[in-house]
């Protein structure tokens, strides 16, 4: 594909091959509204639609209404054929070599009204999130963390290769990239060997990240109506990067027998721009092999469990240079999102537009490709170095984490997520 | 308190001391709208407000707007002082001995418009539920079930007496009383001793109930701003009964290490009428004693952990008489809802109006006061008898469960929940 007349010379995650959707506001207009990102600009879709920008598409009332909302839930609900048509149309409008009458390229007045520098807008949560579910599909992460706690022979539970293990997370504390979070305080068992066991109340000392990919549900399913693996792709609106911040010391004490709770629910950060399923699906690839024969409802093409996706984690102290502490790959997943959806719904659970499904931590098996500090520091025992020579085991106050991810090349084929970033403020008091 | 001029002679959960809030529609008006229940009638609050019924109260615009919504979220957000004022006003309107100008009692035209027989209305979910959290505060249940799996010496995990253990549940599958549910299908490990372990895909054979009390959050808290035990009561809008249906065979296989998932997310039933905090709080009482010294943020008056609340569970096969299979008490709780809220928010997690917090299963320690069939059948091993002589271990297809609960006496002081009922349909195919 040729480039866009909007793209700058700089390499951008938001090439014309991408066209990710988000919710923005800016100084001139505080109303939250849909937009797409292109190069180092955003196109305000509400303004563009109001100016008749979609006229050539003969848009339905439902589509126009969906672009007039403060979240993308209505747009997501319209279904993948509509998303496909709208994305293609916007690509036409933005293409260097477009042949269609182009009200945007040819009108400086309209460009002024609806095309803003990316740096001038504020991103908001793109969807109203109904339920958030987090899976555990990164087998290398599950194995390494399991080994730390139970040894390599018992690292994975017997169910691990038979079903995509997942749990219900907290939707209310999902925040958009750039939101600062306070270090959580909670119950911690400082000395597990002391009898009787007496937890203390303190700020987490083992504050961690989890690098994840997540999908947003577009089309829902009715209660009692499971979605098959084959149907599932029609239910996926698009993808974001996610940082599932985790307080390991709170988690260790609280998580038996019902799973993680306060160790996770103080905040989960997602990237603001939703990369549509059509943009990312070409990069589906073979993930981590699962040799276990699967029940029929979970059978999937092994070439569709991973993504040919570069993933990086940057850590930046308050002052001091940024260090890329991990470079890993979307190939490090053993279950596809379609399998997660099939499993989630097989007992009848309804998914709704705006539901968020996380992959679980994406890690490789080497020192430099881990998705959590728990792995990088070998269970909190071995510090790793930052580029200024300082060390980390877990996060310090005022550390910022920035997760980045992209597929494709460096030019007009690049499909990236931008930033999923957050700073840890001192503990709440 | 004297009775209401509306109450029938029959004993009713919805006496003038109660005034529970719900969302209704009826044949004449399909719009979902707020109402209260009184005796065997409901008062349509939208219609009543539109007719100027609240004029004497000098209602705020926010109050009038909240009565014009399809859920009670806006009303809940107004806060307990407003709920108190509105409930008292409605009690005045309905009281036998009221002195105030009474447009409802004195106008048959208005009564016809806004006062309907309970049997003529349809109840809907009273709140849009953002997040649903389920706790585990019924110590007797936790102990008995833990004993079944790990023996009495290891029944309770070391954290149990230090914090109200809870997990995030699934909000999208919370349904209102009267909604039928299909038996879920899922992965089940029929023979845990076989090597290698091979799950099968089948309909749950160990389908259970969990009798719970739940609270709805009214006032939320900002992210990073914990709510103390003392403040927590201002955040509680009111209470409902809950049946947390559970597929034990699915649960056993799936729940390690992240907690229950498909075993629970196929459906959770709540009673339709929210008993306001002001109506139920007079029945707070001493619950199950906790001898463990608590961290300061969880310290609570031991007289406020339980409720003087009668709870009963009825089982009715498709044909055949109804059997009351359990009679238990709201005293069987070891953590107060205020403690649950304090713990839930202590790390900074935000609660929002409409969030639902379940108590966990409420059981006694005797054969006839259990809140789950797992306990009644001693781990599924000992059938219990129904009144027609038939037996149950877990639920059969077309069994209906009806949970009831009430505080106070039998007349004008009774504060009850009505029904929390549901029928299990054959497995989805």
From TrEMBL, chains A, B:
The keyword NADP does not apply. Pathway: Amino-acid degradation; L-phenylalanine degradation; acetoacetate and fumarate from L-phenylalanine: step 6/6. Keywords: Calcium, Hydrolase, Magnesium, Metal-binding, Phenylalanine catabolism, Tyrosine catabolism. Residues 18-126 form the Fumarylacetoacetase N-terminal domain. InterPro entries: Fumarylacetoacetase, Fumarylacetoacetase-like_C, Fumarylacetoacetase_C_sf, Fumarylacetoacetase_N, Fumarylacetoacetase_N_sf. The keyword Endoplasmic reticulum does not apply. One of its GO terms (molecular function) is metal ion binding. Mg(2+) binds at residues 244, 264, 268. GO terms for biological process: homogentisate catabolic process; L-phenylalanine catabolic process; L-tyrosine catabolic process. Its EC number is 3.7.1.2. Its cofactor is Mg(2+); Ca(2+). Substrate binds at residues 136, 150, 251, 255, 361. It catalyses: 4-fumarylacetoacetate + H2O = acetoacetate + fumarate + H(+). Ca(2+) binds at residues 134, 210, 212, 244. Residues 135-405 form the Fumarylacetoacetase-like C-terminal domain. SUPFAM superfamilies: FAH (SSF56529), Fumarylacetoacetate hydrolase, FAH, N-terminal domain (SSF63433). Belongs to the FAH family. This is Fumarylacetoacetase. It comes from Baudoinia panamericana (strain UAMH 10762).
């Amino acid at each position: 594909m040729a480039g866009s007349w909007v793209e700058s010379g700089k390499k951008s995650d938001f090439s014309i091959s991408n066209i990710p959707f988000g919710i923005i506001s800016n100084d001139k207009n505080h109303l939250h509204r849909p937009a797409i990102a292109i190069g180092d600009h955003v196109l305000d879709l509400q303004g563009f639609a109001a100016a008749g920008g979609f006229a050539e598409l003969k848009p339905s009332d439902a589509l126009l209404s969906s672009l007039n909302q403060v979240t993308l839930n209505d747009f997501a609900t319209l279904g993948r054929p509509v998303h496909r048509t709208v994305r293609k149309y916007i690509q036409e409008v933005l293409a260097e070599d477009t042949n269609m009458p182009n009200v945007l390229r040819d009108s400086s007045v309209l460009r002024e009204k609806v095309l803003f520098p990316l740096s001038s807008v504020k991103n908001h949560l793109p969807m109203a999130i109904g339920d958030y579910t987090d899976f555990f599909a990164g087998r290398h992460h599950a194995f390494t963390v399991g080994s730390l706690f139970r040894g390599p022979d018992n690292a994975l539970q017997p169910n691990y290769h038979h079903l995509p293990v997942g749990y219900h997370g907290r939707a209310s504390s999902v925040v958009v990239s750039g939101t600062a979070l306070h270090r959580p305080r909670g119950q911690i068992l400082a000395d597990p060997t002391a009898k009787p066991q007496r937890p203390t109340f303190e700020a987490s000392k083992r504050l961690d990240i989890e690098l994840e990919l997540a999908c947003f549900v577009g089309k829902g399913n009715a209660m009692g109506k499971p979605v098959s693996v084959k149907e599932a792709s029609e239910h996926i609106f698009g993808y974001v990067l996610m940082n599932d911040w985790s307080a390991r010391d709170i988690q260790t004490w609280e998580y038996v027998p019902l799973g993680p709770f306060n160790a996770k629910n103080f905040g989960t950060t997602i990237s603001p721009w939703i990369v549509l399923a059509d943009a990312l699906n070409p990069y589906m690839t073979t993930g981590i092999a699962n040799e276990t024969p699967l029940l029929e409802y979970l059978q999937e093409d092994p070439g569709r469990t991973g993504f040919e996706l570069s993933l990086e984690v940057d850590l930046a102290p308050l002052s001091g240079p940024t260090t890329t502490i991990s470079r890993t790959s979307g190939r490090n997943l053993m279950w596809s999102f379609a399998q997660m959806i099939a499993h989630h719904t097989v007992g009848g659970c309804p998914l709704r537009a705006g539901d968020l499904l996380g992959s679980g931590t994406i890690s490789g098996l080497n020192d430099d490709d881990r998705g959590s500090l728990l792995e990088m520091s070998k269970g909190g025992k071995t510090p790793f170095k930052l580029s200024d020579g300082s060390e980390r085991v877990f996060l310090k106050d005022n550390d910022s984490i920035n997760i980045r991810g992209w597929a494709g090349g460096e030019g007009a084929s690049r499909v990236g997520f931008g930033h999923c970033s957050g700073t840890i403020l001192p503990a709440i008091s």
